[in-house]
TrEMBL record:
<keyword id="KW-0804">Transcription</keyword>
<dbReference type="InterPro" id="IPR009594">
    <property type="entry name" value="Tscrpt_reg_HTH_AraC_N"/>
</dbReference>
<dbReference type="InterPro" id="IPR018060">
    <property type="entry name" value="HTH_AraC"/>
</dbReference>
<dbReference type="InterPro" id="IPR009057">
    <property type="entry name" value="Homeodomain-like_sf"/>
</dbReference>
<dbReference type="GO" id="GO:0003700">
    <property type="term" value="F:DNA-binding transcription factor activity"/>
</dbReference>
<dbReference type="Pfam" id="PF06719">
    <property type="entry name" value="AraC_N"/>
</dbReference>
<dbReference type="GO" id="GO:0043565">
    <property type="term" value="F:sequence-specific DNA binding"/>
</dbReference>
<dbReference type="Pfam" id="PF12833">
    <property type="entry name" value="HTH_18"/>
</dbReference>
<protein>
    <submittedName>
        <fullName>Transcriptional regulator, AraC family</fullName>
    </submittedName>
</protein>
<keyword id="KW-0805">Transcription regulation</keyword>
<feature type="domain" description="HTH araC/xylS-type">
    <location>
        <begin position="122"/>
        <end position="220"/>
    </location>
</feature>
Length: 225
């Protein structure tokens, strides 16, 4: 999974019959490494490698053996404090290179090209993540992206699969869930902390997103460990 934007989401791990544990590994790509590699790849290619950058918010694709091997070697360095600082930069660079040359290459170019619509949407998303508890209108958010409200709404949905205001609502609900779990506060208090003015509206929105009322959901999450 490669993503350019932080979209609140849930996932479910389907356990194998043999009971083997599931291991997830993620890295935060370096814009500097991608920019350097993009330049080198295009300079050395006999024909254009990247034509039309993809400007969606995230994508999934199969990982080949080379990519999986690089991730495994990187993870194994966690147990080797001597080799880790020497080898991890080289492996990270290898991962960046293999991703650029893989099926997600066009997508990654769309992320790190400064002139794309995705970049402007990401700027608004970063602002919402830092100020999720503040009220915003569609016009205000569109102005941040230097786009018309109609165009911004369409581009935002293409990137995140939800509207700008739905995205902010999800941010609030996920943050409220974290507050209830971490601080033990009740649903009404959590709702007010993340910007809701009505505890009833907060409970309705929470149940709509998570399919269960907040109090019961938090109890289920705690009992599940």
């Amino acid at each position: 999974i490669v993503t350019a934007v932080d979209v609140p989401s849930n996932y479910c791990v389907v356990a194998e019959k043999d009971g083997k544990p599931m291991v997830g590994v993620s890295i935060k790509p370096s814009a500097d490494i991608f920019a350097e590699l993009l330049l080198q790849i295009e300079e050395n290619a006999s024909s254009p490698v990247f034509n039309h950058p993809c400007e969606c918010g995230f994508m999934t694709c199969g990982a080949d053996e080379a990519v999986l091997s690089a991730f495994l070697r990187l993870a194994e360095l966690l147990d080797d404090p001597v080799k880790a600082p020497l080898l991890s930069p080289m492996i990270m660079r290898e991962i960046h290179m293999r991703l650029l040359l893989g099926p997600q290459g066009q997508y990654l170019r769309g992320i790190f090209a400064s002139h794309t619509r995705t970049t402007r949407v990401r700027r608004v998303i970063r602002h919402l993540q830092e100020h999720y508890d503040e009220p915003y209108s569609l016009a205000q958010l569109a102005e941040m992206a230097a786009m018309s409200p109609t165009n911004f709404q369409r581009c935002f949905r293409e990137v995140t699969q939800v509207s700008p205001l739905q995205y902010q609502k999800r941010l609030r609900l996920v943050q409220a869930q974290r507050l209830m779990l971490a601080e033990g506060i009740d649903a009404a208090s959590a709702g007010f902390r993340v910007g809701y003015k009505s505890s009833a509206q907060f409970s309705r929105d929470y149940a709509r997103l998570f399919q269960v009322p907040p109090k019961r959901h938090i109890a289920q999450l705690r009992s599940a460990g």
